[in-house]
Amino acid sequence: MYSEKVMDHFSNPRNMGEIENASGVGTVGNAKCGDIMRMYLDIDENGLIQDVKFKTFGCGAAVATSSMATELVKGKTIQEALKITNKAVTDALDGLPPVKVHCSLLAEEAIHAALWDYAQKNGIEIEGLSQPKTDIHDGEEEETYE
Amino acid sequence: MSQLKPSFIYFDNAATTKTAPEVVEAMLPYFTEYFGNPSSIYTLAGTSKKAVTQSRDIIAGAIGAEANEIYFTAGGSEADNWALIATAEAYETKGRHIITSAIEHHAILSTCHYLEKRGFEVTYLPVDEYGIIDLNELKKAIRKDTILISIMFANNEIGTIQPIKEIGVIAKENKILFHTDAVQAFGQIPISVNDLNIDMLSASGHKLNGPKGIGFLYIRKGVKSRSFIHGGQQERGRRAGTENVPGIVGMGAATKRALAIMEDKTAKELELRDYMISKIAQEVPFSKLNGHPTRRLPNNINFSFEFVEGESLLIKLDMEGICASSGSACTSGSLDPSHVLLAIGLPHEKAHGSLRISISEENTKEEIDFTIEKIKEILQYLRNMSPLYEDYKKKML
Predict the structure, then answer these.
(1) How far apart are CA B108 and CA B383, in angstroms?
(2) Domains of chain A as residue ranges with CATH
(3) Cβ atoms within 10 Å of B301's Cβ, excluding its own
(4) Nearest 5°: phi and psi at B347?
(5) What is the pLDDT confidence band of residue B332, given thresholds at 50, 70 and 90?
(6) Percent of chain B at pLDDT exceeding 90
(7) I need a surface site. Which of A39, A133, B115, B150 has the fewest CB within 10 A?
C-alpha cells in the first residue's frame, strides 16, 4: 500500500529525536485522530535552519512524512522552509494513499508551528506566516458510504 | 513439529483462516467433475444437489436446527444484512423499533443506519468496560413496537462473549425476534439455537477453515422473512441465484471438521491465549488487556499499548513476519479508531494503540515468545519516537 520511499522513511526515519533548547518547537495533530507530530528547529542568527528533529505518534505515513519534512527543511532559510507544502512532501515520498494525504498536511503544519514558536520566542514577525492551527483535522469529515 | 516452519507467524484468524486441506479436497470435485447446476434435471446435476443437501444437514445439525431452516448466503455480511432488512420489512406493520449493541460488526451497524434512514428506530445498547451488554438496559429498551433484538454472539475485536442465553429468554418473554451475528462464534464454541432461543443466526465459512464467499443465515421456522435476492427458487425462494456448490460443500466440510476438533482446539487455544495474555501483562510496560479475562473467545487476545499507534506497530510486526491486526483509525481507513474500543471506554489514543492477536490451534508457545520479544523491541522503538511518551516522561520527572 505504501511506496518504497515511504517504507524507507518509516523504517529508517531521518532526524528522529529532540533538540534541547531548540529555537522553535511545534506540535500539531491530535490523539483523537491518531497522529501527533512535534518538530524541533535549530535556527542560527542568519535565519538558516541548522538542525531539525522530529517526534511522531502516528501511522507509517505520519512517520514517513515527518521524516521527509525534516530532510526538506534542513539547511533551508526560514522563507524557503515556509514554502514547503504538503504536496512537496507527498511528491518527495513518491505519493501517499488517498486516505493518508492528511498526514502530509500534518508535516506542513508542523514546520509552520515550529517557525511560529521561533517567531514568538524572538518577538519577530515572519512574512507570510500566521498562527497555524494546531489541529489539522478541524473541519475534516469522514466519507460515508450508503 | 516436524514439518517445515512457515516463513510467517499467522495471528489473524479472526480476519480469516487458512482453508483446511480436507476442506479443499472435498470442494475440488465440485469445480471440475460434478459441476452441474443443482436445479437441472439430469443425473450430473443430482450429484450437486445431493452435496448441497448434505452440507445443509451437517450445518443444521451443528446448531440443532432443521435443514430447511438453513439458507446459504455469500457470507456473514450478507446474512446480517438479510436478517435485519428482511425482518424489518416483514414486521414493519407490527413495529419499527430494533435493539442492537454499540459494538456490533459494521455489517449490522451500517445496516441499522440504512434502516434508520428509512424510518426505523434503533437503540444501540452500551456495553461495560469488558464489552458486555447490561441485561437490565436491554429490558428497559424494549418497547411495544420493538420487532427485533440483534446482539452478536462474540465480538470480533475483543472476543467478548455476550450472555446469549439470557438475551434469548428476554426476547422470548417479550415475543421479540432474536438474531445473533455468530460469525466469530460458529465453529468455535458450541451453539444450540433451541437452548439459546435464537430465531436467526449469521455465520461465515472462512472463519472456521472453510472457503471465503460462503456463509449462511439460520431462520427459525415460522419467522416471517422476505426474499432477499429475487429471481429464482433456490433456498426455498428466499435467496435466488445458482448455488455456490463448491463453497457450500466447503462450508459443510469445514463445519464437520470444526465440530470434530472443537474440544482439542479449544483446549490448545485456551492454553496459548492465557499464556500470552499473562506474559504480555507481566512483561510489557504500559499495556492493558481489552475485553473480559474469561468470557472471551478462546482464540482472542487484544491489548492496548500506550504512546504508540497501531498501524506503525503492525508494519513493524509484519517486517518480522508476524501477521496481526489493530483497531487504529489508520487500519480502518477512517479517522476514528475502533468503535468497539471506544464503546468499552478507551480514550482515543489508547484505542489507536491496540493490537489484536487471534490465534489458532496450530500456533505454538515458541511463536508467542518470539512475538512478545518483538513487541517489546518495537514498542521501545516507537515510544522513543513518540511525543506522547516524551510528554509522559517529562511529567514524571
Answers:
(1) 36
(2) 4-122 (3.90.1010.10)
(3) 26
(4) -65, 160
(5) low
(6) 93
(7) A133
What is the C-alpha to C-alpha distance for residues A19 and B105, in angstroms, rounded to an integer?
45
The mean per-residue pLDDT over the stretch B106-127 comes to 98
Chain A residues 66-125 with a CB less than 8 Å from chain B: 99-100, 102
Look up A59 and say whether it is catalytic. no
Residue B333 in contact with partner chain A when CB distance is under 8 A: yes
Encode pLDDT of A77-118 as tens digits. Answer: 999 999 999 999 999 999 999 888 888 889 999 999 999 999
Are residues A31 and B387, on separate chains, in Cβ contact within 8 Å?
no
What pTM value is reported for the model? Answer: 0.93
**Whether ipTM exceeds 0.85:** yes
In this structure, what DSSP letter does residue B100 have?
E
Cell numbers standing for residue A133: 492551527
Sheet holding A49-57, edge to edge: A24-30, A35-43, A49-57
What count of residues does chain B have?
Answer: 397
Written as nine digits, the cell of B193 is 439455537
Q: Do B335 and A33 touch (CB under 8 A)?
A: yes
The answer on pLDDT for B1 being more than 50 is no
Q: How many CA atoms lie within 13 A of B351 on its CB side?
A: 24
Ranges under pLDDT 70 in chain A: 134-146
Instruction: Give the pLDDT confidence score for residue A20 in this predicted structure.
Output: 94
Q: Which residue of B has its CA nearest to A36?
A: B387
What's the mean pLDDT in B90-95?
97
Tens-digit pLDDT profile for residues B298-311? 999 999 999 999 99
d(CA B349, CA B355): 13
Short-list B169, B111, B180, B170, CA closest to B137: B170
Q: Strand, helix or coil at B319?
A: helix
Q: CA B213, CA B396: separation in Å to the nearest integer?
A: 52
Judge: B309–A16 Cβ closer than 8 Å, yes or no.
no
Grid coordinates representing B116 are 434508520
What single letter denotes the amino acid at residue A141? E
Q: Span B102-115, mean pLDDT?
A: 97
- DSSP output for B226-284: --SB-SS-GGGGTB-S---HHHHHHHHHHHHHHHHHHHHHHHHHHHHHHHHHHHHHHHS
Q: How far apart are CA A108 and CA A78, in angstroms?
A: 13
Q: Which residues contact A112 (CB under 8 A, 6 or more apart)?
A: A26, A82, A129, A132
Residue corresponding to grid cell 446448531: B63
Measured CA to CA in angstroms, residue B131 lies from A111, B97, B104, B111, B155 at distances of 41, 23, 10, 21, 8
- Look at strands B287-289 and B97-101 and give their pairing: unpaired
